[in-house]
């Protein structure tokens, strides 16, 4: 089987990105998914192992080929998110997310006022990049949203 190592170029793919592509298994007719990327050392586009960990024939199948491997299909949403432009690994790290929540909550402090406690941070319009109003109930909507996520 010959592989066109320039196929990605003909498709106009960005060498700095990686893509999910269908690939063929050696011994069966099963269709899996693999990461397709540019390898500068070989000046060629190449696929690796399938997402489920099996060895594959080199080179992608045509775009749109139906994937038949259930484990690969299960991993597909995670890989699509991680290979998307602008993906930030911290967005999937629970420790990083908990730290972000803690920092945001620490900015919001309750104060007494007419009608009950209010969020001191959100009520100081002149200190906010985008004013949110003088009297925001505590916990403010930001804290409510963050604590809902933290649970």
Q: Which shape, going by the Cα principal axes?
A: elongated
- pLDDT < 50 stretches: 125-132
Instruction: Give the amount of beta strand, in percent.
Output: 15-25%
Instruction: Please bin the fraction of helical residues.
Output: 25-40%
Strand order of the largest sheet: 1-2-3
Question: H/E series, N to C?
Answer: HEEEHHEEHH
How many β-strands, per DSSP? Answer: 5
Instruction: Write down the Rg.
Output: 25 Å
Q: Give the CA-CA distance, first to last residue.
A: 53 Å
- How many helices? The count is 5
What oligomerization state is this entry in? single chain
The main pleated sheet reads as: 3 strands, antiparallel
The helix/strand class is alpha+beta
Description:
With 151 residues, this protein is α+β, with helices and mostly antiparallel strands. It folds into 2 domains: 7-86; 91-150, no CATH class. Helix content is 30%, strand content 18%. It is built from 5 helices and 5 strands. Strands 1-2-3 form a 3-stranded antiparallel β-sheet. A hairpin with a 6-residue loop joins β1 (18-24) and β2 (31-39). The model is unreliable at 125-132 (pLDDT under 50).
């Amino acid at each position: 089987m010959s592989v066109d190592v320039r196929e990605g170029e003909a498709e106009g793919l960005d060498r700095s990105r990686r893509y999910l592509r269908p690939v063929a298994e050696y011994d069966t007719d099963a269709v899996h998914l693999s990461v397709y990327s540019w390898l500068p050392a070989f000046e060629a586009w190449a696929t690796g192992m399938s997402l489920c960990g099996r060895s594959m024939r080199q080179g992608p199948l045509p775009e749109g080929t139906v994937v038949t491997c259930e484990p690969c299909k299960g991993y597909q949403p995670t890989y699509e998110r991680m290979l998307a432009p602008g993906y930030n690994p911290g967005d999937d790290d629970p420790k990083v997310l908990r730290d972000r929540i803690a920092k945001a909550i620490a900015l919001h402090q309750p104060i007494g006022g007419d009608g009950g406690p209010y969020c001191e941070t959100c009520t100081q319009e002149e200190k906010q990049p985008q004013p949110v109003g003088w009297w925001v109930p505590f916990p403010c909507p930001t804290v409510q949203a963050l604590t809902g996520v933290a649970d």
